[in-house]
Amino acid sequence: FIFFVSLLNSKNNTIMKRMLFLILLAVIGVIKVSAQDVDMSQENSADPRIEELSQGFAELSQKLEQLQEDYDYLSFTHLIQVLVFETKIFDVEIRISSNEIKNWCYDSSFDIDLYLAYEDHYDMLQERYNLFVGNKDELSELIQNLTFSGARLDAINLLYNMLDHNLTSIENNLQYYLNCLNIYKKMGKRY
């Protein structure tokens, strides 16, 4: 660089100054053209990558939405299945208790303490039944707002109908329990 400056400072080298000026212009031009080529190659190579990444992101987003819907469906059906299972067990418990009272009716003796225990047990069973009915009502509201596909909604409605059937059976068995309890109470009035 110092060499070029010393050439420029000499007064009798006009041709040399012009040549140096042309060389500098050529170097600057080459630098500018190669910088543009680098920019163009980076732009051209960046477009496919960006497009590929955005396409991959869109696919992953779609898969995530599908997984979220699958999770929501499985979670919701599991909730209903648990309630169906619990109500079925509860129904069996009521029938067992009703049969115990019925067996006591066949026994000729009356026990007031046993009667009072079964009466308290009936109240507890009725409260538990009311909780299940409340759960069913909440599920009914949730089902109305679901956005699942037709097949999934059909499966959910089938489970809901099973729950409804179990609750109807529980209601009938609670009435049977109460009838058995009243029969047992009438036995006590005979003594």
Q: pLDDT average, as an integer?
A: 81
Beta percentage is under 5%
Structural class: mainly alpha
Low-confidence stretches: 1-5
- Note the total helix count: 4
Helix content: over 70%
SSE order in H/E notation?
HHHH
C-alpha geometry? rod-shaped
Separation, N- and C-terminal Cα atoms: 129 Å
Q: Specify the biggest β-sheet.
A: none
Q: Please provide the count of β strands.
A: 0
- Rg from alpha-carbon coordinates: 43 Å
Task: Give an overview in words.
- The chain is mainly α and 191 residues long.
- The chain has four helices and no strands.
- It has helices spanning 2-9, 14-106, 112-144, 150-190.
- The protein is rod-shaped, with a radius of gyration of 43 Å.
Primary descriptors:
mainly alpha; 191 residues; disordered N terminus
Topology at a glance:
Blueprint: H1 2-9, H2 14-106, H3 112-144, H4 150-190
Helix pairs in contact: 2-3, 2-4, 3-4
Brief summary:
With 191 residues, the protein is mainly α. The chain has helices spanning 2-9, 14-106, 112-144, 150-190.
